[in-house]
Amino acid sequence: MIEIRKIQANEAVELQNIAKQTFKETFSSENSTENLEQYLENSFTLQKVESEINNPDSAFYFATEDKHITAYLKINLEDAQTEIRTKNTMELERIYVLKNHQGKGIGKLLLQKAIELAKQNKVNFLWLGVWEKNHSAISFYEKYGFVKFDQHIFTLGKEEQVDVMMKLEIGEL
Length: 173
Hints:
The chain has a single domain (about 1-125), classed as Aminopeptidase (3-Layer(aba) Sandwich), CATH 3.40.630. It is globular. It has about 170 residues and is α+β, with helices and mostly antiparallel strands. The protein has five helices and seven strands. The two termini are about 25 Å apart. Helices cover about 35% and strands about 35% of the residues. Helix 1 (about 10-25) crosses helix 3. Strands 1-2-3-4-5-7-6 form a seven-stranded mixed beta sheet, sandwiched between helices.
């Protein structure tokens, strides 16, 4: 049984651990170890993770299976968004599933949670950025109605990469 639950402030270490592990599992085969390690060291410090958990405009959710953390979701509203910072949009910043738990529908459940939160917050659209080389993630989001609308630069270590920006109109759901 897979459960989705909001992450509590005292779970920062658990979030930090799964964030590092899932990011590494997802991107290590396509990126240099140096760039990956630099990104992980800068982006997932305990202080930064705690700050993000305590930001009232962000929310994190764990997916658990038999009480084991298997995935997580991060959404951002208003000023917590990394690009579009309005009251009428919500960013789906992260959905990451541990490699050995992929294919169980956990990503779909987390995406459904994000869409539910977007509806509750009455935003016009839910948006995200996904690496242009992550074809499986792009296909996943397209399957659920997301469309490409722009692109931005994502810096991984010393390398600039292109992220495709995608959005899902919430008013049409």
